[in-house]
């Protein structure tokens, strides 16, 4: 039997290694810790939780609860270990983090088909493999990945735009409209803050002088890359201050372009516009479209309040940047998590463009299953799109590549229900969950029957 290589013994890689070994294939599992650390991990354990000790809500009609239930049906070893290490946390599955990762470590170390190598991998292996080196992938491996996928297809940061509360917007200035009054949007989906040429000039000058948050120590190497002209984010997600540095009018031609937005007070298009988009259905908060930023929070207060209409803005979330290495999944990956350009190479965890502990475990499980199936020459496990994991895979592979940002479990990515029954939010979530679990059961029964007949 051909050995499968797994790179990274975090959440995704640990799950993947176990799944492959359980299918009867030998695994070479590479983990660089404890000798080489990431800056966020503290131990040499497999599946270390770097921050929170919660895997999210376990209530079945919550998005994470549904994903947990799917993982249970799919035979996730990490979910079993989490349940063994559970601590009381209301409706959430929280764990004793040491017990959890020690249990996973013991399972992997004692599996007869898993051979563990404590070393940093610096090149992409040629054979059947799973790449699960996570958001803090070592820089040599990241360079090897860039060489394989193209520099533009590997991002090093997540960039979030600020969110303001609706009642802090100055409605005497801000106006609701969609570009060219296209009637496709619900009324009020977009709010526009208009700037005259003088206001735009003052805003850009303030932005260019504002202080940004220094990158953390483990991000130093990336800072070098940014200095060298390698941005570390996909083009559609550049921070506003980076765009502004490209030329004085680059924002007016980019996220602040005013075309098709007639200001009702003047009857004309303004010189520039900051668009705000609803965060929730009620319209109680809005995000600043395309305004990802790494400015200090106090600087965001000062600079963003120079935008007419936002003079007294209350920020519910400030813009932020996080170190996160991830591939441009819509360009590179198929829904079985294999790479388009190298079908024997599977990618899992945050590197595949998913967000969060559970999504990392879930993609590790599927990548492991499919790498093993490739090795054995049996058909891949393709999940129904109605499942939460199936929806995540569709969302990461079908997103707009230019603006791709990691995806986490949520009901917004699940296909709509096909009946005409009107439901409230909770009932709709319950119906999504019931449909997902019933479709997954049918899929797994068919898979077992099919593999029995082969
Ligand atoms: C600082 C931080 C905090 C986070 N907090 C949360 C949170 O609270 N809740 C949440 O849901 N998500 C959180 N996340 C996001 C994400 O869920 C976790 O990072 C999760 O661990 C990702 O799983 P993974 O398997 O993709 O990567 P990891 O669990 O990080 O596993 C990757 C493994 O690969 C190893 N590795 C890297 N490069 C190499 C190499 N070249 N050779 C060999 N081994 C290598 C690393 O040492 C690591 O053990 C956080 C992320 C970060 C960076």
Strand order of the largest sheet: 6-2-1-7-17-16
Mean pLDDT: 90
Rough outline: globular
CATH superfamily of the largest domain: FAD/NAD(P)-binding domain
Q: Largest beta sheet, briefly?
A: 6 strands, mixed
Summed up, the domain count is: 2
Structural class: alpha+beta
CATH topology of the largest domain: FAD/NAD(P)-binding domain
Hetero compounds: flavin-adenine dinucleotide
CATH class of the largest domain: Alpha Beta
C-alpha end-to-end distance: 18 Å
Radius of gyration: 24 Å
Q: Uncertain runs with pLDDT below 50, 5 residues or more?
A: 224-230
CATH architecture of the largest domain: 3-Layer(bba) Sandwich
Helix content: 25-40%
Structural features, described:
The protein has helices at residues 11-22, 63-74, 77-84, 97-110, 139-149, 197-209, 220-227, 240-244, 297-304, 329-332, 357-376, 388-398, 425-453; strands at 4-7, 27-30, 54-57, 86-87, 92-95, 114-117, 129-131, 154-160, 163-165, 175-176, 190-195, 272-278, 285-288, 315-317, 320-327, 338-339, 342-347. With 454 residues, it is α+β, with helices and mostly antiparallel strands. It folds into two domains: 4-158 and 324-453, FAD/NAD(P)-binding domain (3-Layer(bba) Sandwich), CATH 3.50.50; 162-318, Elongation Factor Tu (Ef-tu), domain 3. A six-stranded mixed β-sheet has the order 6-2-1-7-17-16, covered by helices on one side. The protein has a six-stranded antiparallel β-sheet with strand order 10-11-12-13-9-14. The protein has a three-stranded antiparallel β-sheet with strand order 3-5-4. The longest helix has 29 residues, at 425-453. The protein starts with a strand and ends with a helix. Residues 7-13, 30-33, 38, 40-41, 50-52, 120-121, 132-138, 141, 349-351, 356-357, 360 line the site of flavin-adenine dinucleotide.
């Amino acid at each position: 039997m051909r050995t499968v290589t797994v790179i990274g013994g975090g959440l995704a890689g640990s799950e993947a290694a176990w799944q492959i070994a359980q299918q009867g294939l030998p695994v070479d599992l590479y983990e660089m810790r404890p000798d080489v650390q990431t800056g966020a991990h503290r131990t040499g354990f497999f599946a270390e939780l770097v921050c929170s000790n919660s895997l999210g809500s376990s209530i079945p009609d919550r998005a994470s609860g549904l994903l947990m239930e799917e993982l249970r049906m799919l035979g996730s070893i990490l979910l079993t270990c989490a349940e063994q290490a559970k601590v009381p946390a209301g409706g959430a599955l929280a764990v004793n983090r040491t017990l959890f990762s020690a249990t996973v470590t013991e399972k992997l170390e004692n599996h007869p088909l898993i051979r563990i190598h404590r070393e940093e991998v610096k090149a992409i292996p040629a054979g059947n493999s799973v790449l699960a080196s996570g958001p803090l992938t070592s820089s040599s491996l990241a360079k090897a990945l860039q060489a394989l996928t193209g520099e533009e297809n590997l991002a090093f940061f997540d960039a979030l735009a600020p969110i303001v509360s609706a009642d802090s917007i100055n409605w005497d200035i801000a106006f609701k409209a969609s570009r060219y009054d296209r009637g496709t949007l619900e009324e009020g989906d977009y709010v526009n803050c208009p700037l005259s040429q003088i206001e735009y000039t003052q805003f850009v000058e303030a932005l260019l002088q504002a202080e940004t948050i220094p990158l953390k120590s483990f991000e130093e190497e990336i800072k070098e890359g940014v200095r060298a002209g390698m941005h570390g984010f996909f083009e559609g997600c550049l921070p506003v201050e980076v765009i502004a540095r490209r030329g004085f009018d680059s924002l007016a031609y980019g996220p602040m372009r005013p075309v098709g937005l007639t200001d009702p007070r003047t009857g004309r298009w303004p010189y520039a516009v900051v668009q705000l988009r609803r965060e929730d259905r009620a319209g109680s908060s809005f995000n600043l479209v395309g305004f990802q930023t790494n400015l200090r929070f106090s600087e965001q207060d000062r600079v963003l309040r120079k935008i007419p209409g936002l003079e007294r803005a209350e920020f519910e979330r400030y813009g932020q940047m996080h170190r996160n290495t991830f591939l441009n999944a819509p360009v590179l990956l198929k829904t079985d998590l294999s790479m388009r350009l190298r079908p024997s190479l599977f990618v899992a965890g945050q590197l595949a463009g998913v967000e969060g502990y559970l999504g990392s475990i879930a993609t590790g499980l599927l990548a492991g299953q499919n790498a093993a199936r490739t090795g054995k020459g049996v058909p891949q496990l393709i999940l129904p799109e109605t499942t939460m994991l199936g929806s995540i895979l569709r969302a990461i592979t079908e997103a707009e590549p230019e603006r791709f940002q990691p995806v986490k479990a949520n009901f917004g990515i699940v296909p709509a229900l096909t009946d005409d029954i009107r439901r409230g939010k909770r009932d709709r979530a319950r119906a999504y969950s019931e449909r997902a679990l019933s479709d997954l059961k049918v899929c797994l029964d068919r898979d077992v029957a099919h593999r029995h007949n082969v």
